[in-house]
Amino acid sequence: MALKIAVLAGGVGAARFLAGLVRVVDPANLTVIGNTGDDLEFYGLYISPDLDTVTYTLAGVAHPEQGWGRAGDSFRVQAELGRFGLPAWFKLGDLDLATHIYRSWRLRQGATLSQVTAEVAKAFGLEVRLLPVSDDPVRTRVRTAEGWVDFQDYFVRLGTEPEVLEVRFEGAQAARPGPGVLEAILGAEAVVLAPSNPIISLGPILAVPGVREALRSTRAKVAGISPIIGGRALKGPADRMLKSLGHEVSAAGVARLFADFLDVWVIDGADAGLSAEIEKLGVRPVVAEAVISDPERAAELARTVLGEVLV
Amino acid sequence: MALKIAVLAGGVGAARFLAGLVRVVDPANLTVIGNTGDDLEFYGLYISPDLDTVTYTLAGVAHPEQGWGRAGDSFRVQAELGRFGLPAWFKLGDLDLATHIYRSWRLRQGATLSQVTAEVAKAFGLEVRLLPVSDDPVRTRVRTAEGWVDFQDYFVRLGTEPEVLEVRFEGAQAARPGPGVLEAILGAEAVVLAPSNPIISLGPILAVPGVREALRSTRAKVAGISPIIGGRALKGPADRMLKSLGHEVSAAGVARLFADFLDVWVIDGADAGLSAEIEKLGVRPVVAEAVISDPERAAELARTVLGEVLV
Question: What is the CATH code of the structural domain delimited by A5-137+174-309?
Answer without folding.
Answer: 3.40.50.10680
